[in-house]
Amino acid sequence: MPNPFRKHTPRRTGNRRSKNSQLHLGGQSRCTNCKSMVRPHTVCKECGFYGGKLVIAKKEKKAKQQEGGEEQQG
Ligand SMILES: [Zn+2]
C-alpha cells in the first residue's frame, strides 16, 4: 500500500482553514434608484433608498472647486 510521502505543511493547512472562515456576502441585487450593487434587504449605501423610498438622507458633500487646475480625463 502506498503511503503519503509527507503530511501537508502548516502553511497549506492554514491556507485551507482560512478559506472556511471567510465571510460570505451572499447574493447581491441592484438598487432600484441608483442601480448600484446592494445586499438584499438592506438600505442602499450610495443613495439611501430602500423599497423605492428615501430612508436615509444623503449627506451633502461640499464641492471643492480647484481654481487654476485643469481636470484630466481619461
Ligand atoms: Zn441606491
List the ions, cofactors and other small molecules found in this model: zinc ion
Query: Runs with pLDDT <50, length 5+?
Result: none
Helical residue percent band:
10-25%
Count of helix runs: 1
Largest sheet: 2 strands, antiparallel
- The secondary-structure element order is HEEEE
Strand order of the largest sheet: 1-2
Structural class: little secondary structure
Kindly report the oligomeric state of this protein: single chain
Instruction: Report how far the terminal alpha carbons are from each other.
Output: 63 Å
Give the tally of β-strands: 4
What is the residue-mean pLDDT, rounded to a whole number? 80
Supply Rg.
24 Å
Q: Given the C-alpha coordinates, what overall shape results?
A: elongated
Give the percentage of residues in beta strands: 5-15%
Task: Name the features.
two-stranded antiparallel ribbon, single chain, little secondary structure, 74 residues, binds zinc ion
Concise description?
The chain is low in regular secondary structure and 74 residues long. It has one helix and four strands, in the order H-E-E-E-E. It is elongated.
Describe this structure as you would to a colleague.
The chain has 74 residues and is mostly loops. The chain has 1 helix and 4 strands. The strands form 2 sheets. The protein has a two-stranded antiparallel ribbon. Strand 3 and strand 4 form a beta hairpin. The structure holds zinc ion (ZN). Zinc ion (ZN) binds next to loops.
